[in-house]
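A further point concerns the way the authors explain their paired sequence and structure data. Nothing conveys this as quickly as seeing an actual entry. An entry of this sort, consisting of the sequence and the corresponding backbone structure tokens, reads as follows:
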Amino acid sequence: MSTADHETRPQRHGADTAARAGERQLRWTVGTIWALAALLIGAIAWHVATQTVQSRQRELQAAERDLANLTRVNQEHADRTLHSADQVLRFVQARYLELGRQLDLIRLTEQGIIDTGSFPQIGVIDADGIYALANRPITTRLDLSDREHFRVHRDGAAQGLYVSQPVLGRATGRWSIQLTRRIARLDGGFGGVAVLSLDPGYFTRAYSELRLGKQGISTLVGLDGVVRARHPEAPSGMAADLSSSELIKLVREGRTSGSCRAVSPIDGVERLMHFRKLARFPLVVVSGMGIDEILANHARSRSALVLQGLVAGLLTVLLAAVATRFLIRMRGENLARQGAQRQLRAQSEKLATFFALSPDGFVAFDEAGKVSHVNPAFRRMLNASPGNVEGLDAQELAQWLDARCMPDAPFSATDLVSMALQPVSRQPIKDKLVLRAGRKVLQVRGSSGAQAAPTLVLRDVTHETEVDRMKSEFLSTAAHELRTPMASVHGFAEVLATQTLSDAERQEFAGIILEQSGSMARMLDELLDLARMEARRGRDFRRERLCLATLVQDVVRNYQAPPHRSAPRFQKPADAALVVGDADKLRQAMLNVLSNAYKYSPAGGDVEISLLREVRKGAERVGLRVADPGIGMEPHQLQRVFERFYRADQSGTVPGTGLGMSIVNEIVSLHQGEIDIESTPRRGTRVTLWLQLAAQEVAPAA
């Protein structure tokens, strides 16, 4: 490595460090600006949300206070009204016990003893349920024995004042609330009922003076959940049943007052409700205001707050964006000033990096024709130490290379170096250097020009040379293997075409031609299979979960053993071994191994197939073993068993192409498996195909 390279590395490192530091500073500053902006926006959002919640709570609390006060007023009004009515009923009850049917309620009304302004109709229902006395003339006979406010006293279900549900009067034809008390005779028997009819409008007129808004309501409800009076009045609200409402549930739980939010079953409006139970009567006073009306001011203030928050957030983002743009612009101008200084250094650094990382060996000459620089790849190729080559001229370098090349080469490094450094030489030289160490083959090329210093390039082409040799050897072997059957086909075809033969001879020669052409077709098919598998690397395999035992059983069942030979012996195991693979390819591999087992055991004997299991490197795998009692193989034959066109039997008596085990090896390799072969001469061979078990193996149903 040159001195200049040692000098530029610290400079480059320092520039990179400064650039990274500046970039980090910019990122930190910009990040801080946007973090502060995000915090400010978050604070604005929190303020808006907090003020919105507080505004809502204030409106609801104010409405709840107002409703509590209004409900207390309604409670006192209802309590006074019912108490006054109860006093009137007690008066009528006592006078009826004293005077009986002689009691003149009309005269008492005219005298002002009974106030008809508050209670328009007062009367007595006798023990038979007949409306006997009233403060107004009775023109028809009214039977009220079926009325609830009569039956509860007759049956003893009510002891004190009873407030009925709103009923439609039979005499007046108007809705009214019936307040009744039981009249007991001196002997304790049932003597009738004192009844007072109260107009629900008496309450609703009082409720109408309350300021509850357009959606507000005031209601008088019994503990049975039935509405006695309601403002505003609605046809569906008269005697409506609210027994399942949340408010009635709270009262039944023992609450005497409280608030809740509920949707009215009468008009479907959601309201904030406040209720108070009358202390002396089984009634509840309810006041409610619509949620929409309560929160109207809150909605307006919320909209204003949200608008203010959005404006403040947008201003914050705008300020952060302006500050970021200003900082980035300043950074860009600074980088532009530094870029011109780094540009020249970058060119030399790229060239140095190219020389250092290239797998080819480079030798650079200076203007004086001396070696000025060699890259690491050149040193690795030729095992050159620093200082061995630098300073040599082209002739001295050629001699140095000759000393490391094979002495029997038909060419010398001097000639190659001289040709490579010619100004017109820009293509690879046909001849190559062959080094002594490992017989490494180097290709030499070079360039030289008026503007650029001469450069010598050495490329390691050992692998390519070996591949070319193997291709030539393969083509030679394939041509030799095809020549024998081709010669037979050609010879016997020529005999058939040129000579007169008997039918038996023609039949025999045609059979030979057919057999040899079939052998050639099988060889070509196997070569194409190998080429296809090597090119596609298993991408055309149809992989699926397979039961290996079932697949072997299918192969054994369909396999045609040679004449006078027994079929393969296979005992299907109890547990199924599941693998993932291509069924057709695995079947092809099994058939090739099985065919070899029969071909290489000409003396006969049983061919046995078995399945094995073992754990290797923490993973369980399954093996398909084919054992034959054949001729076996020597160790040197065993090493070449997967070579193409290689056959252990060199006598030619065993038919075959020598490609079967190559195909088996390729199929098993593409299934990530392995092949183990154990063979003893004249004792037989055992071939085991190992495959990985499928994940989460589950035995298939029988």
Observations:
- The chain is about 45% helix and 20% strand.
- Residues 698-702 have pLDDT under 50 and may be disordered.
- Residues 62 and 294 are 9 Å apart (CA to CA).
